[in-house]
Amino acid sequence: MDHTASAVSRPRAYADRLAALQSGAPTEVSLREGVALAQHHALATDARVMVLGEAVGRLGGAFGSSEGLQARFGAERVIDLPISSAGTVGLAIGLALAGKRPIVELGGALGPALGQLQQELAAPGAELPTPVVLRWVQDTPEAASPLAAVAAAKNLQLAMPSTAEDAQGLILGALGQDAAVLIIESVGVLGERGQHSVTPLPTGRAKVRRAGDQVTVLSAGAGVLAALSAAEDSAVSMEVIDLVSLRPLDLPTVVASVARTGRVLLAVDPGWGALAEELLGAVTRACFLHLESPPQTVAANAAAIREAASQSLHY
């Protein structure tokens, strides 16, 4: 990810607006503004919190998600690091074991960091709590998702917000846990506007974004927007559930929906890989007695979701 380019291309008006939001009481913000405000709130209210990553300080992070933090809290708490995801995650683990609450911004491929993620941060049977919040900022819609790469790190909690309120809540909620949490911020939702909130949101909470009674559509991040668009322009009554948290999964909310509809679709991007299989398997087992058609994954675009929802009614 070219953090420098994204930082340089941001207009000064963004930094000015963010500074105004931080000093006032904002009611509506974009998702990327919400992430910056959540980190500002965390740094201001908890001396243990630190922000680490490539260009998170002087250049304000990818898409301005850390804008102004180093100027306000200093270079010892908002730390620019070299391009080394493995080194960054390793440093965060050490800081967490020493009592800190690090927030790490990661970009690009997660491959170099997988050793740290699987063997140290989210290793099965790990005895020591490692409260690390990892933020992976998707650079472009075509960027490879890290979900397939981290599917094997079973102790790593995963979340993908679609709203500004949830993005803020997930960061603050993750900081309150003694666990490793990866939050994926998709470029497709960075401009979505919503309510400013400093209420922590624990992982494991899904949200019903649209009620329906024929087909349940599950997704997260930008996929939720596609599902809502599909439901808006379809003769099929779709209930759209924003999973928000992919691990742990809010199965009670999903089961309650499928018990009404009898059908379920999981709208995902190709990069979800093995994680999509994990999620669909968990949903199928939990909802088996309620199913009237086979559960399936579908591409996270409105046309594909509409077609799959219509076909599911013919079983």
Describe the structure.
This protein has 315 residues and is an alpha/beta fold. The protein folds into two domains: 3-195, 3-Layer(aba) Sandwich (Rossmann fold); 207-312, Rossmann fold. It contains twelve helices and 14 strands. It has helices at residues 3-8, 12-23, 31-45, 69-73, 85-97, 114-121, 147-150, 164-175, 222-232, 251-261, 274-287, 302-312; strands at 28-30, 49-53, 78-80, 101-106, 133-137, 157-159, 181-185, 193-195, 207-210, 215-219, 238-242, 245-247, 264-268, 296-299. The strands form three sheets. Strands 3-2-4-5-7-6-12 form a seven-stranded mixed sheet, with helices on both faces. Strands 9-11-10-13-14 form a five-stranded mixed sheet, with helices on both faces. It has a two-stranded antiparallel ribbon with strand order 1-8. Helix 11 links the parallel strand 13 and strand 14. Helix 3 packs parallel to helix 8, helix 9 (222-232) packs across helix 12 and helix 10 (251-261) crosses helix 11. The radius of gyration is 19 Å and the shape is globular.
